[in-house]
């Protein structure tokens, strides 16, 4: 009499690019046929689709199957082949150990693999070892193939954000099987914009917030975030460089979005340990923190949250609005929003005057931009030189010679910048006469730069409990 067996079918495929699960579907059908031939009743299916048996840390359905064996919910397992179940000898030993304890059976579509007897288990171990060996050899072949592609500068995998994959056609009209990434007109400009804004000191958070407000779709998800943007800006691919396993091997066949100097500046900026991930530039979040001066002791004014005040008459608790307080004498305090509003209106009014357009006409903006770009490129090279010395890729003598040479070049670029620097920030504010709109579009660190360039703010002392008096905010315009 045939023993009643409750069988589970395990199916797995490493990659399913189309996501249609056709491969595991075929495995299930073949396994069902084997179960019918053996008279086993299929009571459960365990399917790990698009999951590797070597790279993946977890195989949820595989783990569920082991649990069901331990709970005696199934008496047998049908698989397509031993390498569908596992490519690791250690995992196979777990299966054999479970068979010892729970006396369950295993069958394969290809036949010949069982674990009921010691001879069966020895054969299973041999097949498992062969599967592991073949996996190792396949991995070596693939790694060598990927390295060769990288050395030739060819792309691999999916096109990165900012690019689209094309198949070049030669002069004879034959389409190449090797693709090439060219710039996606819309997405490429988004990456360039983010790079420009980052190098000007704008925070990644501010940029992604703007992208999301403008409903610019992210690389995968709808919304952008700072982590994704940082990863995109650090890609050597953007500068036409081919990277393999974290190392740049040389030029890529990919069309560059910008030059290598721009990429080096971005890497130096974004990997600077002193850079805060959620804010760039000034450490202040408010317009006049550290800029406004106390009219009593000349100390710096800092923004503080409002204090809680208890009414002597009713006992009610009321929180005062945020204020600028003197950080030295603590005797001068003024309503923060009222002071900010006053200063902003003064700046907008001044920059809206006809002569404001001449503020930025001193100096040579082209030379200044070139000098600034040179300084940032030199700084990036200094950082990379330090990394090379730390990683023992250059000698102490080479490091010393390189840093001295770069510092001399930096000093020369600084002299050029001092003589050619235009008031580019003020130029952007007066552009098109839309001063108020341009001001609102600036990040807080840029707004603080405008305040520093244009005026000095002194907050004079006032009597306790008095209403805000604009006359007690002293403004001195700079030449």
Automatic annotation (TrEMBL):
Residues 160-276 form the Recombinase domain. SMART domains: Resolvase (SM00857). The lineage of its organism: Bacteria, Bacillati, Actinomycetota, Actinomycetes, Micrococcales. Signal peptide: none annotated. InterPro entries: DNA_bind_recomb_sf, DNA_bind_recombinase_dom, Resolv_N, Resolvase-like_N_sf, SSR_resolvase. It comes from Cryobacterium flavum. Residues 6-153 form the Resolvase/invertase-type recombinase catalytic domain. This is Recombinase family protein. Pfam families: Recombinase (PF07508), Resolvase (PF00239).
């Amino acid at each position: 009499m045939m023993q009643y067996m409750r069988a589970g079918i395990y199916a797995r495929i490493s990659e399913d690019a189309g996501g249609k699960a056709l491969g595991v579907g075929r495995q299930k059908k073949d396994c069902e046929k084997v179960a019918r031939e053996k008279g086993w009743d299929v009571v459960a299916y365990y399917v790990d689709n698009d999951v590797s048996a070597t790279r993946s840390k977890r195989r949820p359905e595989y783990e569920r199957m082991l649990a069901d064996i331990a709970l005696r919910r199934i008496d047998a397992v049908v698989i397509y082949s031993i390498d569908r179940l596992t490519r690791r000898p250690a995992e196979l030993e777990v299966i054999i150990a479970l068979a010892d304890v729970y006396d369950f059976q295993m069958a394969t579509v290809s036949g010949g693999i069982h674990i009921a007897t010691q001879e069966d288990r020895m054969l299973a171990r041999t097949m498992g070892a062969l599967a592991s060996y073949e996996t190792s050899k396949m991995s070596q072949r693939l790694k060598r193939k990927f390295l060769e592609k990288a050395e030739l500068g060819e792309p691999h995998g999916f096109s990165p954000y900012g690019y689209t994959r094309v198949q070049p056609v030669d002069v004879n009209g034959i389409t190449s099987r090797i693709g090439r990434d060219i710039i996606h007109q819309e997405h490429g400009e988004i990456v360039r914009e983010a790079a420009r804004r980052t190098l000007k000191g704008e925070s990644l958070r501010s940029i992604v917030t703007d992208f999301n407000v403008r409903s610019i779709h992210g690389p995968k998800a709808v919304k952008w975030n700072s982590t994704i943007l940082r990863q995109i800006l650090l890609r050597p691919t953007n500068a036409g460089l081919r990277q393999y396993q974290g190392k740049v091997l040389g030029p890529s066949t990919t069309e560059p979005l910008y030059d290598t100097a721009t990429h080096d500046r971005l890497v130096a900026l974004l990997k600077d340990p002193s850079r805060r991930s959620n804010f760039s530039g000034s450490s202040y979040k408010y317009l006049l923190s550290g800029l406004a001066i106390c009219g009593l002791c000349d100390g710096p004014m800092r923004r503080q949250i409002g204090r809680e005040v208890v009414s002597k008459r009713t006992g009610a608790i009321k929180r005062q609005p945020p204020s600028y307080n003197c950080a030295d004498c603590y005797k001068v305090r003024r309503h923060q929003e009222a002071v900010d509003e006053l200063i902003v209106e003064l700046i907008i009014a001044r920059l809206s005057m006809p002569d404001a357009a001449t503020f930025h006409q001193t100096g040579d903006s082209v030379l200044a931009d070139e000098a600034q770009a040179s300084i940032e490129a030199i700084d990036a090279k200094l950082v990379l030189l330090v990394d090379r010395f730390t990683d023992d890729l250059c000698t102490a003598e080479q490091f010393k010679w390189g840093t001295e040479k770069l510092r001399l070049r930096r000093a020369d670029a600084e002299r050029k910048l001092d003589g050619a620097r235009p008031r580019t920030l003020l130029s952007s504010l007066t552009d098109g006469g839309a001063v108020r709109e341009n001001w609102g579009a600036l990040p807080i660190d840029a707004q603080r730069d405008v305040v520093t360039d244009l005026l000095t703010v002194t907050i004079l002392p006032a009597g306790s409990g008095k209403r805000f008096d604009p006359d007690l905010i002293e403004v001195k315009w700079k030449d």
